[in-house]
Amino acid sequence: MSSSTTAAIGLGYDVYVADPLPMHGPGPLPDGRPRAFQPLAVTLVHGRHDAVLVDPPLTREQARDVGDWVEASGKRLTHIVATHGHGDHWFTAGLLAEHFGAQVVTTAGAIPRMHTNVHAREVLWDAIWPDRIPPSPVTAVTAPGNRLTLEGHALHLVEVGHADSADSAVLHVPDLDLVVAGDVLYNGVHMYLAESPDDDLAPWRKAIDTVAALRPRHIVASHQNKHLDDDAQRLIAETRRYLDTAEATLAAHDTPTAYFHAMLRQYPDHLGPTVLWVGARALYLAREGGDPVQNLIAAWRQ
Q1: How confident is the model over 122-145, as pLDDT tens digits?
Q2: For residues 191 and 112, what is the distance between their CA atoms, to the nearest angstrom?
Q3: Which domains, ranges and CATH numbers included, belong to the chain?
Q4: Given pLDDT bands bounded at 50, 70 and 90, which one contains residue 198?
């Protein structure tokens, strides 16, 4: 866990990082390691009395731990924010919202993506983590003008377009020089490129440019190595560099296995090799054609 507070204005943020979850299903990765998901970071932006939770986690057990963490803060939770529609960023939102009496909010574009992820639960999410994810009806609503207020401080949901998912957003807290970046920026973790059509990373680069234009000093990435800092310039530069490296490596190799091993050599300290392999499988399956949804499911489950 990490934290930062500006005492003069009574505003701060804390970060809880859930360790990678083991995954049910196929055998080990091509390098022999067992499959596990990425670490998940949950952010609590808090004032003197109230707080907003950003990107609640995936499983019941993680939600219990996050709930205990919020309780220990002594703050009243008013809102739960989801930055985009991937289930690992909101499947436990309803459970936590009911417990704390909070409202779940996101952008208008993310809500259809949430429904898509609910429809995919049986064939994807629940197949990978059977009996671990709570019921996840879509209860999120949009915030007027994509804006929340926390004890007089503005929190802005900034829509950035396609990152690791379409219809992504970040939460900008100007009074903290903070961006809670969802999956637009990563921090020491392999990036999920599986939903970048035709190996086209230009939309993601544009999303990063949108975040950089906010001029934050701190960025919380939802997938992060908890031992790294939140320096915004470093995260932006390293995320851009990773995309450049991935693009060049994709062009240089003809098979997902060759790409996977090449990226491991270039990023030996990055966490999340399972997501690297899933992305490799999806991108190379896309080169062969076929249904994009079925390709994505095959990449995760085979």
Answers
A1: 999 999 999 999 999 999 999 999
A2: 23
A3: 2-301 (3.60.15.10)
A4: confident
Q: Is residue 283 over pLDDT 90?
A: yes
Average pLDDT value for residue range 286-302: 90
Q: How many CB atoms lie within 10 A of CB 43?
A: 27
